[in-house]
Amino acid sequence: MITRKAYKFRLKTNQTLARKLAQFAGSSRLVWNKALAFQKERLNAKKSCLSYAGLTKELTQWKKEEDLFFLKQVHSQALQQSLKNLSQALSEAFDKTNPKQFPKFKKKGQRDSFRYPQGFKIDNNNGRVFLPKIGWVRYNKSQEVIGEAKNVTVSKKGQHWFVSIQVEIEQKNPQHPSSSVVGGDLGIARFLTLSNQKYYEPISIFKKLKAKLAKLQRKLAKKEKFSNRWRRLKSKITKLHIRIANTRNDYLHKISSELSKNHAIVILEDLKIINMSSSAKGTSENPGKNVKQKSGLNRAILDQGWGEFIRQLEYKLTWNGGELIQVNPRNTSRKCPKCNYISAENRKTQATFCCQQKDCNYTANADYVGSLNIREAGLALLGLGESSLEHSLKSQPTEGV
């Protein structure tokens, strides 16, 4: 079994090195934008897009242009990688089975990065990386890089530059040390509630810093654009956004690591987060209802980072020999785990579940009940049980979840 992992470290830079890295990132961005504009022109002229090989020939011609002389100062493979990424993005956009979004032009200061597919070197002992046409660059070494390095990506976040080293590790199929199967219900009042009665509180870092962020943004709106004071405020806002993202990501990593180590199978709902957090504003002809409340709910959902959490949990379980199962969320919040009675009346409030079936009256935390039902549905999907979510002896209408 071949496993791919990535190690990310902060580079130790000075002003000279930072300018060099910015030049490489800017050149890679220019090649992407120029190639994308070139492909769009061909499409508008009813011609097919050039292949990656065709784009590399165009790149050779661009380097000969007088106003693009600086492209020769950048390592050719970093520029070619931009063309390869664009070709892949276009191929995915025109994939009829699963089309992705058409690639967009890149802007300066937004996700500045470049990649070396080869030619780099890793010095594990001294914590440094060799970048062709840049030289040896030290990084803050927090752990050993284990495995065969396949590529290196240099990126900027805020005021700092980082290096990501992707490696391949060949190992036997891992056997998870645990045989535990747990269901989990993702929520807002509780970030995650497990079927073993354990739960995790939400960190809601954006909610905590929202007022501070809004205050800085109001100040920014009053400054002259691109003035020194505007730039200083812009830098503060960027740092605050990075702080929010890092705090949330750190929390998600801690929970996903704990779950992947302690449980062989984790079962979650297959949530359509994009649909759940879509705007309720509507149109001028058909305006939406409860727009303010829905807007607040959308912010709360996105503040939890469910999508990123599921992504982390899935690959960490795979590394440890476990598995993530996602089930249809239908009726998981309405079914009584004791008598299997399904009704919308079972959950009159978000916090409490109370079965309305005569002679049952099972009462528990609503998220905990959801996790029990999710676990049952997952076991049925694995062929280890039978799910009663789709039917009941006396079931009520079940629109929604």
Series of H and E elements = EHHHEEEEEEEEEHHEHHHEEEH
When the domains are counted, the total is: 3
Distance between the termini: 39 Å
Estimate the helix proportion, in percent: 40-55%
The value of Rg in angstroms is 26 Å
Structural class: alpha+beta
> Residue-averaged pLDDT, rounded?
92
**Count of DSSP strands:** 14
Q: Largest sheet, order of strands side by side?
A: 10-9-8-11-12
Q: Categorize the overall geometry.
A: globular
Strand percentage, roughly? Answer: 15-25%
Low-confidence stretches: 391-401
Largest sheet: 5 strands, mixed
**Number of alpha- plus pi-helical segments:** 9
What would you say this structure looks like, in words?
- The chain has 401 residues and is an alpha+beta fold.
- The protein has helices spanning 15-44, 52-64, 76-93, 205-221, 228-262, 273-276, 291-304, 306-319, 366-381, and strands spanning 2-10, 113-116, 121-123, 128-131, 135-138, 148-157, 160-170, 181-186, 192-194, 199-200, 265-269, 323-327, 352-354, 363-365.
- The chain has three domains: 2-170, no CATH class; 181-326, no CATH class; 328-381, no CATH class.
- The strands form four sheets. It has a five-stranded mixed sheet with strand order 10-9-8-11-12, sandwiched between helices. Strands 1-7-6-2 form a four-stranded antiparallel sheet. Strands 3-4-5 form a three-stranded antiparallel sheet, with no helix packed on it.
- A hairpin with a 4-residue loop joins strand 9 and strand 10.
- It starts with a strand and ends in a 20-residue tail after the last helix.
